[in-house]
Structure formats: C-alpha cells, structure tokens
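To close the section, here is one more complete example, presented without commentary so you can practise reading it yourself. The ligand is 2-acetamido-2-deoxy-beta-D-glucopyranose.
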Amino acid sequence: MGAHAPRLARKTTPILLLALSLAVVAFGATDSAALFNFKEALQNNSALDNWNSSVNPCDWNRPNWVGILCLNGTIWGLKLEGMGLTGIIDIDSLVPLSHFRTLSLMNNQFVGPFPHINKLGKLKALYLSNNRFSGQIPDDAFQGMRSLKRVFLANNEFSGNIPLSLSTLPRLMELRLEGNQFQGRIPDFRQKNLKTVNLASNFLVGPIPEALSKMNPDSFSGNKDLCGPPLYSCNSPLRALNKKGNTLKIIIGVILLLIILAAIAVALAMFHRKRHRPELERNPSLSMNSNKIAPSYVADQQQCQVAAESSGQSRRSDKLSFVRDDIEKFDLNELLRASAEVLGSGTFGSSYKAAVGSGQALVVKRYRHMNNVGREEFHEHMRRLGRLKHPNLLRLTAYYYRREEKLLVYEFVENGSLASHIHGNRSLEGKGLIGKPG
Ligand SMILES: *[C@@H]1O[C@H](CO)[C@@H](O)[C@H](O)[C@H]1NC(C)=O
Ligand SMILES: *[C@@H]1O[C@H](CO)[C@@H](O)[C@H](O)[C@H]1NC(C)=O
Ligand SMILES: *[C@@H]1O[C@H](CO)[C@@H](O)[C@H](O)[C@H]1NC(C)=O
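Output:
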C-alpha cells in the first residue's frame, strides 16, 4: 500500500489538477449565474449595473461586483443596501452559493411577505430592516437555521405573532424586530448568547421571557401591555396603577366632559329664563303689587308706552284689538298683570297661559321676529284669523301690534291644541307656534 500510493499520486495529479481547475471555473460560472438570477428577479436594479459576467464577482477577498461580499474567492454574502430595490427576492437562486452566509437588503423598497429564508440553511445573518415587508411570518420560517446569529427585521409592517422558530435558534445573538406590528406574547426565548433584542414599538402583550429580563427596558417600550423585568413586575401594584392610570384618565375625562356639558346646559337654561321670564311669567303675588314688580317688567311696560307715544298712535296702540265679540273684554294692562305660566318657547317667540278677569284662561303668544310685517297687513291677517272657526283650531281672540313685537291671544282649550290633535298628543311645545295642552 505504502509503495503504491506515490505512484498513483504521480499518475493522477495532472488529471486531478485539470479536474480541479475545471471545477473552479465551473464553480465561478455557477456563482455568477446564481447572482444574475437573483438580480433578474429584482426590480429597479440599475444600482447593480456593474455586475459583469465576463469578470469574476470576487478576486479572492476583493469584490469586482458592487454589493458582493467575498472571502477567499468565494461569495460570502450580499450587501445590497439603500439601492431603491424592489421586486422579488429569489432565495432559490442563492441556494447554489455554498459559502453564502449573510444577506442584507436593508433600506430598500421591498414589499410583500417574508421570503423563504430558511432555504439558506447556513445563513448567519439576515438584515431586512427598513423595507415595507408585511403580513404574518410563519412560525417555522426560521426552522433549521442553526447558524443564524443576527436577524434584523425592524421597521417593516410585519404583523401577527413573533415566529416561534426564532426562539429556538441555537446561535441567535441579535434580534431586532422594533417598529413593526407584531402582536400577542413574546415567545419563550432561552438562548444564552442573546445579547441584543429590540421589540419596541409593536403591539406585544404579556410577560417578558426571563432570558430577556436583563435587556434595556427601552427595547420593550411602545408596546401594548408588556410586563415583568426589566419592566414592572406583572403583578406589581405599580403596573396596576399604570393600567388603572389609563382607566382613571378616561374616567376623569368623562366626568370633566359631563361637568362641562352640565355647565353649558345650566348656562343655556339661565339664558333662556332671562330672555323669557320678564315677559308675562310672573309670580302672581308680585303681580298684585305693582311696587314689587320686577324692574324688567316695568321696563317692558314703559317700552310699550314709549313705543305707543313715539309712533304717534296715542294710547290706541296700547290697546288690544279684539277679533271676537262673544268674549269678555280685558285690556293690555290686565293681561300684562295677570299671572302667567310659560307653555313653551320656540324660534318665533313664546307662549304663555294667562288668566284674566273672572279667571278666563288665555293663551298668549309673543312674536318678536316679525318686524317686517306692516301694521295694515298684520291687522288684515288677524281679522282673517279671527273669522276662522274649526273644532280643532284655537280661536284667535285678540291681538296686539307694535313694530317690535306682536301678541296673539287665543282662548285656552283645556284638552288640547291643534298640534296635539294633528300629531296625536305629541307636544309641539318646542315649535312655539301652538300652546301645549294645559
Ligand atoms: C465587462 O467587463 C469586460 C472586461 O473587463 C469589459 O470589456 C466590458 O465592457 C464590461 N461590460 C460591462 C457591461 O461593463
Ligand atoms: C481563507 O484563506 C485563509 C488562508 O489564505 C485561511 O487561513 C482561512 O481559513 C480561509 N477562510 C475560510 C473561511 O475558508
Ligand atoms: C429606484 O432606485 C433608485 C435608486 O437607485 C431610487 O432612488 C428610486 O426611488 C427607486 N424607485 C423605486 C420605484 O423604488
């Protein structure tokens, strides 16, 4: 055996060398072809224009092609960063590259699902951060990648759970998943070599695995509800407070809102009363004693007189005009002095129920926004209204005309009004046109 070996070696060496060199050439060609296949699947790949098939990608450790990582004349990785690349990541085309260990496609424009990266079983580093990859990553996406040390998927749009297979990678040292939409719980990472993990700005919940308890708390910030070291303990009162704090804020917010709404309601109610009270609604006991009548009412009456005098109509305009004569007469002062009860108020004015003379009940409607109606026109309308007779209609009894304000006086009907007859007793109070039934 010892004697044969050298002879055999001497005989076969040239053939072996030839075969070897052919293999190297073939190998180089395969590498180039593999890379060209990878490039073909990409879009907007003009940044890779210097890839030239007549030149070897690598001169030992020196790359001839842009973005190629070379080691001892082999292709060790691709670093195609910030090149505006998009299109398909053809993992299959990289499988023939037997020394391929690292792939970086960071800061490009890639979209779509996570590529089938575990076809590159010897990969040590995967950098896909700052693209627009999206969707759920299958739980077994990293299955069998026993050499993988670095996984950078930050700032994409990945969703769903963090893939379980990441937590079983035996060599994992650095994991960056921040700025995605990962949700659910963090899988139970147990790797001892894990040095950096960043899971910030996702939608993760639940306890942080013990193996990650020494990480920087910032690596867990901006999630939905993570707990345990390095954050608050999951049953710490601080965390409860923190959670309650949010609830408390909401409750306080709601209470504040209610208080503000109540304040607005009270203010509106007061404003409303202020506008309408001085008119006819008055305390009957006050109305008996003119000395005690509210100043606003006095002002009201004076206004009437001033208006009457200035309009040159003498005291005639101070009088009510009656459109019916089958009714007990009363004068304006009597009406103004009468105890009154607000029936409703609306867009055009307010209605009151008042009792005059021998307790005759009347509905008085006060219109304030009919300033454009001329005196004659108004008289004419009132006369026509006075002639209307219908069982379902309140009959006009009298009216009062002043340019700024008109009063219409109806007889009061106990069991309803036109509105309640027409609308089946649903009050039209708010419309202020027809008095509410008493
Ligand atoms: C590829 O390289 C060869 C040899 O260096 C050169 O002649 C040729 O112009 C190159 N082609 C491109 C497209 O750069
Ligand atoms: C690369 O070649 C050098 C010698 O030139 C050797 O020491 C080293 O182990 C080789 N590396 C690999 C990864 O093959
Ligand atoms: C194409 O790539 C260039 C850089 O090479 C980049 O500026 C551009 O935004 C990219 N276009 C698209 C559509 O991604």
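Once you have examined the tokens, check your reading against these statements. The mean pLDDT is 77. The longest strand covers residues 349-356.
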